[in-house]
From TrEMBL, chains A, B, C, D:
Entry's transmembrane regions: none
Gene3D superfamilies hit by this protein: NAD(P)-binding Rossmann-like Domain
Keywords: NADP, Oxidoreductase
Gene (UniProt): LOC111159925
Organism: Enhydra lutris kenyoni
Domain of life of the native organism: Eukaryota
A Gene Ontology BP annotation from the UniProt entry: retinal metabolic process
Name of protein: Dehydrogenase/reductase SDR family member 4 isoform X2
Matches recorded under PANTHER family: DEHYDROGENASE/REDUCTASE (SDR FAMILY) MEMBER 4, DEHYDROGENASE_REDUCTASE SDR FAMILY MEMBER 4-RELATED
Length: 245, 245, 245, 245
């Protein structure tokens, strides 16, 4: 239940030399020497992911469409002693966007595909990389009233598999995170009033609503060497809400 | 492995009065008094479906983008004594299409969604209806070299679920057919030469390649009263190729 | 939500000669010249399936563990002019069962596997056949309080795929039906009181509870020549309840 | 492709006090103060998991059916400075096993269910815990010649969901690992000769066969606080082999 197909790209400077997952060393700073680009990361789940990747040793590039949001997020994370810089990121040029009917499908699916392709050459230069696409539990089940959003998220499950296949030969893994109901400003309509929250929890068959932080660890894991044989997969972080076998 | 999100819309003139599935009667002409609009139906799977629906009692409207293809298909089916008429169907007006970058995602997903919504009012007037969307086994697994096609088909799985949910209250069911490898002109690159065919069959773990006719029965079934409690589902017609649990 | 892994086995006397699905003829009596063995078929979904297969032209063998139930079902169906006989069917010999701790897993999974294997030689003699295994929506989602039942139904999804693969070379197709919430005596605890019914419908996200008849058409379809390219698949009959993509 | 439903149970001594995942601290020794019981862990994937959990701070109890295998594994891991002890673990008493027809379904499914239930009281005393069940890619697709094995693994996907649901209120999470083709003695028939390996890689659509170590990180992750909102899920470690959406 978040705005856009958030895309995370991580590439290792010295991919092969970091290949020491079983030594214990790599786990201390599993993302050392890596650069992470996290889109839509000034708030909510994206922000939690950006923080976590930086804590795990990556240099993180925070990105969003608005300069002031980027500045605020960078300042916060730098204040925590993390290695973070920021960039404003547009989906295409402004004039193009105006002509285009920018639908949810375009933003969530096409932009994710285009951005992945944009970072591939950089990853190849560094010997490999890892992409984590953010879908939603809505990819599996129709959250009422969010039709186009749900469908775009379903498409991301397929995009993950197809990109994984295509980029396999270049040492780039592509995986996907499907958060369930997470407490963010984006999803607040679902939990703001107590009664609504209880009803949603019953329908989603969960004990409690998740926190953005609870989505961050799996992203760091999927980007690390520990996930070296995981590609094309989607992990649901949904607190037990029905997903798929 | 077919061109576009083929959409089939069936609406019953006298929905409730046909509700006699267990009497045996309805099964003789399971689609009597129904009108079926079959897009992309002048060739291959679409044509096989159109023929079958007409054989099962529906009046079928054959549709495609080219007048001469429509004329040929209508003539053939009328020559078999079937109740068929034709119409040329554009995805939007020509001038719009030129401005728009008509990608596979637009054609397969947006056009399918728009066309379904276009037929809903007519179905409501008749008391209900049935939509069958045609996806592909590529929706589940990345057929190499067909990335955007595969992703658009994955999106259709989600579209099926979401439309089913939305249209539930209006007595409209929405289901999906996912053909595996079917012998059509569209898929001939995969089976034209014998050696290629054998290798594809091994990879797809099938004994033989399917025929367009073998996709038609399930569509007729899903449109009939016999499927009254089936909605939001996708049926794979793939000869045993790996699909999903 | 039904007792046991109901197994349906259909074998065609003259398989190849019936291969005329597109002629319209086969659809009049799609199961003519076939013999259907339906286990657990004296009540509920099994009974609805047995009746439907007989209406569609098959000779049906009704089967259950209790003689009087079999007699009653046979009498009812013969009274409707259908070609039906009965047999009492035990899972193993009585003395074996007493020694064995007959768990749900044993009945639902092992018995289904064993019975399928028992009918294979007969099907082979006739040139082929079709098996439809009955699982449940519980195979996909944990219906609370029914753990072992749910797990056994999940196993049936895998059994379907594995038997389909194994029996492919012998012209035997194996598919599966997963009913959602159907109004039977087995499931009455879920719908007997009105308030409970409304709550269940909300959780299952369905407009109404299904009827046994609504599970019968798909079984007849899967057994017919129309499903000649469908094997290893599960069809959910759940009225739109969340299932899987 | 491994022998039995390997079960991993982890319980935190001071569950709530360890709740500091975002502080960076917890990640240094993510499993500190935890006790891990790893069954079937003297070889292959189980052994790799046991080692990794110990490296990540847990006290590990290695377990298997044969005393000498347990002794050897414990000695090896203690020699690496890890906190490890061993225990011989039988599925039931020997005399029981002789009477019982111990099928694969019994070992893989029933034993996993029983063992989980056996460790629940201990986990509850400690305030919670985490169970990771090991299934296989065979759970999703029928590996030829391994029918009962595959079906038992499919059942484990359902068991994971059902146990997750049941144990939710006791602060116990239950997840599942589905390894693809991993280089172990168990799977050597598939890769021992070079030609066979190449053919298997093509069918499984993978670039290379995985290593036991590559299955270990995800188990440690799923047991850690970082996975606090992940329950009922299966993660495939298959190098991009077709799995499910």
């Amino acid at each position: 239940m978040r705005r856009a197909g958030l895309l995370l790209a991580l590439s290792g400077r010295a991919w092969r030399s970091v290949r020491m997952a079983s030594s214990g060393m790599a786990r201390r700073d599993p993302l050392a020497n890596k650069v992470a680009l996290v889109t839509a990361s000034t708030d909510g789940i994206g922000f939690a992911i950006a923080r976590r990747l930086a804590q795990d040793g990556a240099h993180v590039v925070v990105s969003s469409r608005k300069q002031q949001n980027v500045d605020r997020a960078v300042a916060t994370l730098q204040g925590e002693g993390l290695s973070v810089t920021g960039t404003v990121c547009h989906v295409g040029k402004a004039e193009d966007r105006e002509r285009l009917v920018v639908t949810i499908l375009d933003i969530n699916v096409k932009a994710t595909a285009l951005m992945t392709k944009a970072v591939v050459p950089e990853m190849e230069k560094r010997g490999g990389g890892s992409v984590v696409i953010v879908a939603s539990i809505g990819a599996y089940f129709p959250v009422p009233g969010l039709g186009p959003y749900n469908v775009s998220k379903t498409a991301l499950l397929g995009l993950t598999k197809n990109l994984a296949r295509e980029l396999d030969q270049r040492n780039i893994r592509v995986n996907c995170l499907a958060p369930g109901l997470i407490k963010t400003s984006f999803s607040q309509v679902l939990w703001k009033d107590k009664e609504r929250e209880e009803s949603i929890k019953e329908i989603m068959q969960i004990k409690r609503i998740g926190k953005p932080d609870e989505c961050a660890g799996i992203v760091s894991f999927l980007c690390s060497e520990d996930a070296s044989y995981i590609t094309g997969e989607t992990v649901v972080v949904g607190g037990g809400t029905p997903s798929r076998l």
